[in-house]
Amino acid sequence: MTAAVMTDRPAAYTPPAQYKLSTAGLLRSEWTKLWSLRSTWIVLLCAVVFSAGLGAIIASSVPDDQAIGGAASAIDFSMAGIALASVFIAVLGILTVTGEYSTGSIRSTMSAAPKRLSVLWAKAAVYGAVVAVLFGAMVFLTFFLTQAIFSGTGLGGVSLSDDGVLRALLGYTAMIVYLALLALGIGAILRNSAGSIGFYIGVIMILPQLATLLPWNWVTDVTPYAPGNVPNTLLMVDPAGATLSVGESWLWMGIWLVVTYGLAGVLLKRRDV
Amino acid sequence: MIEIEHLTKRYGKKTAVDDLTFAVKPGVVTGFLGPNGAGKSTTMRAVVGLDTPTSGLARVNGKHYSEFRSPLTEVGALLEAKSVHAGRSAYKHLLALARTHGIPKRRVTEVIDLVGLHEVAGKRVGGFSLGMGQRLGIAVALLGDPAVLILDEPVNGLDPDGVKWIRLLLKGLAAEGRTVFLSSHLMSELAQTAEHLVVIGQGRLLADTTVDAFVSGNGQARVRVVSPDAARLAEHLAGPGISVSSPERSVLEVTGTEAAVVGQTAAAHGLVLHELRTDRGSLEDAFMQLTADAVEYRQTTEGANR
Ligand SMILES: Nc1ncnc2c1ncn2[C@@H]1O[C@H](COP(=O)(O)OP(=O)(O)OP(=O)(O)O)[C@@H](O)[C@H]1O
Ligand SMILES: [Mg+2]
């Protein structure tokens, strides 16, 4: 603590040069984070069990007199569980972001990647990919499972090569990935678990349905464009009667994601962590 | 090297940091001192880019933190609040951070061993004690083997063994030429670790000096004399700038002069001395004296005594 020590300062320290922040690194990091939480395993397991299980239960309990209508009805019945599983997927998407804020781990995350935006993209990419792979498989598994149950009834004998069937099944996969990404973006905007889940269930899922009960015609005209409704056309074996065409459906999914992630990105840059 | 230039940070109406300017140099441990709410944590968060300054800037080695291509090897930070997901294990938390920079697993195990968390590395962090959480935070800070370390109250929650360990660790890291910047409320704690001091109060700079200069500058040295001839000695010592008081019979406390002068005066007049020593004002006194006007949350003892 003397002047002698002060002048005796050691040569400047050079940190290791081989480590660099990278996009690949951020993706691997988000992958590690996702799978190192027990909640991920539990929620995904629930989603998988629900989608296949509920599909199977519904399929086996359809009364024979309703077992008519061919491919469209067959897919509606068998995918009922997938639609419900999307709530689990959305909640987990929200938690991948809000969980970081509620526990404070976001501070570690953002000090490792201070440009911040790349973290949001990495989170969305990893979660979106996991959901796409998992539900890409689940949708087809559930389809074949329920077809086995339906065999011999009016709902059986539907083939992937039938008109619109493959597109509808891929539509279910696209919908669930879209909702997962939408929910994750909402989490990034609101930062709060309860608030984001409440917003998702209340505003994205329920509000457009309730709104159709209102006595004004214009409400029914706009509800198909609500963020939670835009994928609906993709789920149809025969989308001819839908307000949005298949192309418009994709377009609006894109618009809502751009709006959500645009807002999330701007807020992420501007707000303190 | 950390440079803070005219840093101001407001949260709504509350000014947490007010036009703060100082630099933290490499090679020595620099302490960051200030009463509760002084703005220490806010300043540290601004350095690692978590809080955006209202005005002014914080730079590390000449760059804004977000410009670094490998932030973890440039700056290692331990921030005030727990920055870990309670449901994740210590190992996975470190691994996730390491992966962003391509830091190998080997380094993760290395820092876990270094901070003594080997036994519990696989356990969920939610069950960690304050001290274990703090050790994990230190492991995070060391992960990238960084050139600059920013530690917000690192000894908080550590046992005496841990306190001693981190003191040596930080001195060692500084001796390697790194910049080490740590905050504390405890002057006595910092005096044992730090060589340089930055003191703030209510967001403003109060002192930027070496520990030695701080102590001698703020706590006034006092010479204590015990002599059977105290009264006569007091008469001989009296002079301009010198004040003599006698808290007990045959004890004198002299300020404004040195022990050597007192001894010589006594010898010159043939007075017997039983004791002669210099009392440095305590570090805590010096700190409190300096921040007396800048304490934000002042407690009273009245309620407690009722
Ligand atoms: N995110 C925030 N929002 C609003 N006010 C804040 C925020 N962070 C800090 N403050 C306020 O800014 C002031 C400085 O806080 P800071 O945490 O930097 O002090 P500190 O020196 O670290 O205190 P301590 O010694 O208690 O840790 C305090 O008055 C605090 O209430
Ligand atoms: Mg603090």
From TrEMBL, chain A:
Q: Where are the transmembrane segments?
A: 41-62, 82-103, 124-149, 169-190, 197-218, 250-268
Can you say what this protein is called? ABC transporter permease subunit
Swiss-Prot/TrEMBL keywords:
Membrane, Transmembrane, Transmembrane helix
Q: Looking at the record's lineage, which domain of life comes first?
A: Bacteria
Automatic annotation (TrEMBL), chain B:
Q: Does the keyword rRNA-binding apply?
A: no
Give every ABC transporter domain span.
Answer: 2-227
Q: Gene3D superfamilies in the record, alphabetically? A: P-loop containing nucleotide triphosphate hydrolases
Read off the SMART domains from this record.
AAA
UniProt xrefs under InterPro entries:
AAA+_ATPase, ABC_transporter-like_ATP-bd, P-loop_NTPase
Question: A Pfam family for this UniProt protein?
Answer: ABC_tran
Among the GO molecular function terms of this UniProt record, one is: ATP binding
Question: Quick one: signal sequence residues?
Answer: none
Q: Per UniProt, which keywords does this protein have?
A: ATP-binding, Nucleotide-binding, Transport
Tell me the PANTHER family matching this sequence.
Answer: ABC TRANSPORTER, ATP-BINDING PROTEIN
Family, according to the entry, reads as follows:
Belongs to the ABC transporter superfamily.
What is this protein's record name?
ABC transporter ATP-binding protein
Species, as recorded = Glycomyces niveus
